Amino acid sequence: MSVAFRRESDDEHKEPEFELPIPVGPNLVTPRGLRLLGEEVARIEAAVAATEAEEERKKLQRRLRYFHTRHATAEVQPAPGDAVVAIGSRVTFTLNGGERSLTVVGHDEADPARSHIAFSAPLARALMSAEVGETLEYQGREDAIEIVATRADPEVQA
Questions:
Q1: Under 8 Å CB-to-CB from 24, ≥6 apart: which residues?
Q2: Region entry Disordered: which residue ranges (predicted)?
Q3: Residue 46 and residue 52: Cα distance in Å, rounded?
Q4: Does the domain spanning 89-157 belong to CATH 1.10.150.20?
Q5: Please, which residues have CB within 8 angstroms of residue 146's CB and are 6 or more apart in sequence?
Q6: 75-128 confidence digits (pLDDT tens)
Q7: Model pTM?
Q8: How far is Cα 59 from Cα 18, in angstroms, rounded to an integer?
């Protein structure tokens, strides 16, 4: 039979589905971050059990593999002190003449809308290990950031 008359399956033309990318480096989290990872694993497991559609189940199982890996590799960081910026710190600083506050957290609990940024974000990397009163270089400026205050954020420590 000629190849022209052979019916090819639809699967031959689909894009391959890759695993969700896991951020490079250690999986540092706050106590809240570990709890959120566990809750997400439980939520997805329940959704997989309740889903009958094969395609939807595959998508959920893919997400489940990601969150299982993130939960299993999580390294909970100790509560930071009030002297130095670390993961779990609520930092108040001045940048470009304006005062801002944010909390440094792990990758999976980052939420910029709530002022929670991942420790690997450029701004967080600039702030890490800084002390109150210190001025820091950022985006090519020597004195772009001044640390006003830092303390352990109780929201992420629970």
A1: none
A2: 1-24
A3: 12
A4: no
A5: 93, 94, 133, 134, 135, 136
A6: 999 999 888 999 999 999 999 889 999 999 999 999 999 999 999 999 999 999
A7: 0.82
A8: 11
